């Protein structure tokens, strides 16, 4: 038997395969709240402009509210034959309230309805993810403040470069996440226009009030072109792009947690709460949460590429291809919610080993730049010459198997006779980080100031 929502001209029903490929109710039921919210606004507008009666609107409101309760209670009879969430809810509404239910779809199409629902869903998702991003940033800022002076190795090429502090390192992620938040905010601002009332593609001959529904649903206004309203998913692509970038940030941090918890690094420890054991190797403590966060970007960026590929070459206006937008959007948003929660959990859980970090910070001649800078400042050597002299001293220390600070003054003077005892003051990791007070530099005073600034911004 055919779909009673549109089967007027049909005498036969769809094949089982047609139904299977066509139905989206298995995943778009996630938008039931948004669908009901949109229908309530639409019904109120239809009554306001006199297309339906006050009684009809009251019945629709009551019916939709009851349906919401049914879905929430897990008692809603979802039907695959009714294709999607829109027709499932509408059919049930008519079942419950009769005639009035059949009037709800006046001046509306599933094309503007679904465009609306997805927008509302993404907007809600942005609001939730924004809160989580703020929470993760807060966690990082707390730890950064606590470890503003905890010296650790700074790397380039993953080789020892210069000493930095754990606080400075963590605040680098706060900056990245701050931009992620702002990207999501931009996306939200740009997408916050209502497609409702575009109907199938050309708008409606009924005297609908699109400004009214837009306002009721929290939009800045109605979208200006009905074709664009039903055909565009750039808001979703932008959302996925912003999430993909954010996911790369989480992935980089997660990779560092994996490295840092490796005993050869030994920089931080995670508790039982954020590690797992091995079914065979009794000694194991694996950073699975970090590994999974490191990997999640694959799904999120996959959703972006997936949607762009669906949209590419699609002629205006609506095409059923667009039904393929949802699973990727839902999965990416849910994946990010979990990844953000796991990352915040790890940040709060991790125990840095300050002694080990300090020891590692001094390895690999990490204060060689400080020595070269000293030669420039004290002896007026051109930096290029200072670089050269320091290179020789590093080679000498390396050959003897000692640190730069363990070379004797005589050994240093053999390279540059004017070097004096004052040089040893700049060779410690503490002196190195404390000296870098340039704006945005790693000095603990800077880190404390930045942490305070962020704390204020996040409050
Ligand atoms: N389930 C559809 C989707 O997700 C709803 C819109 C269907 N519109 C149509 N004309 N068949 O895109």
UniProtKB/TrEMBL annotation:
<comment type="similarity">
    <text>Belongs to the lyase 1 family. Argininosuccinate lyase subfamily.</text>
</comment>
<keyword id="KW-0456">Lyase</keyword>
<dbReference type="Pfam" id="PF14698">
    <property type="entry name" value="ASL_C2"/>
</dbReference>
<comment type="pathway">
    <text>Amino-acid biosynthesis; L-arginine biosynthesis; L-arginine from L-ornithine and carbamoyl phosphate: step 3/3.</text>
</comment>
<dbReference type="GO" id="GO:0004056">
    <property type="term" value="F:argininosuccinate lyase activity"/>
</dbReference>
<keyword id="KW-0963">Cytoplasm</keyword>
<dbReference type="InterPro" id="IPR000362">
    <property type="entry name" value="Fumarate_lyase_fam"/>
</dbReference>
<keyword id="KW-0055">Arginine biosynthesis</keyword>
<dbReference type="InterPro" id="IPR009049">
    <property type="entry name" value="Argininosuccinate_lyase"/>
</dbReference>
<dbReference type="InterPro" id="IPR029419">
    <property type="entry name" value="Arg_succ_lyase_C"/>
</dbReference>
<protein>
    <recommendedName>
        <fullName>Argininosuccinate lyase</fullName>
        <ecNumber>4.3.2.1</ecNumber>
    </recommendedName>
</protein>
<dbReference type="InterPro" id="IPR020557">
    <property type="entry name" value="Fumarate_lyase_CS"/>
</dbReference>
<keyword id="KW-0028">Amino-acid biosynthesis</keyword>
<dbReference type="InterPro" id="IPR024083">
    <property type="entry name" value="Fumarase/histidase_N"/>
</dbReference>
<feature type="domain" description="Argininosuccinate lyase C-terminal">
    <location>
        <begin position="365"/>
        <end position="434"/>
    </location>
</feature>
<feature type="domain" description="Fumarate lyase N-terminal">
    <location>
        <begin position="8"/>
        <end position="302"/>
    </location>
</feature>
<dbReference type="InterPro" id="IPR022761">
    <property type="entry name" value="Fumarate_lyase_N"/>
</dbReference>
<dbReference type="InterPro" id="IPR008948">
    <property type="entry name" value="L-Aspartase-like"/>
</dbReference>
<dbReference type="Pfam" id="PF00206">
    <property type="entry name" value="Lyase_1"/>
</dbReference>
